[in-house]
Design goal:
single chain; mainly alpha; 5 helices; globular; Vam6/VPS39/TRAP1
């Protein structure tokens, strides 16, 4: 529902989701804000849901230019390879 709807204020809901440690929801909301690095870090490092991270890239690049999809997957690769994550 969060993914498809535009009938809410993303920043407000994100603040509430962060307070409640709702990580999957935060990832969706960061995606809405196009903060893909933050979203993918949550999926990969907090949730350890690698399939969801790949699906995230697929869903968030639908209907966009091919270069956009490449950039998203590049961000995902960078997240995988980042040894400095807390």
């Amino acid at each position: 529902m969060l993914q498809m709807s535009n009938l809410y204020r993303v920043q407000l809901i994100l603040g509430k989701a962060k307070e409640k440690d709702m990580h999957a929801e935060c990832a969706i909301l960061y995606g809405k804000l196009e903060e893909h690095d933050k979203a993918l870090r949550i999926l990969v490092h907090k949730l350890k849901d690698y399939g969801a991270a790949e699906n995230y890239c697929q869903l968030n690049s639908q209907g966009k230019e091919p270069g956009y999809r490449k950039r998203l997957y590049h961000v995902l690769l960078s997240v995988y390879l980042d040894p400095s994550y807390e």
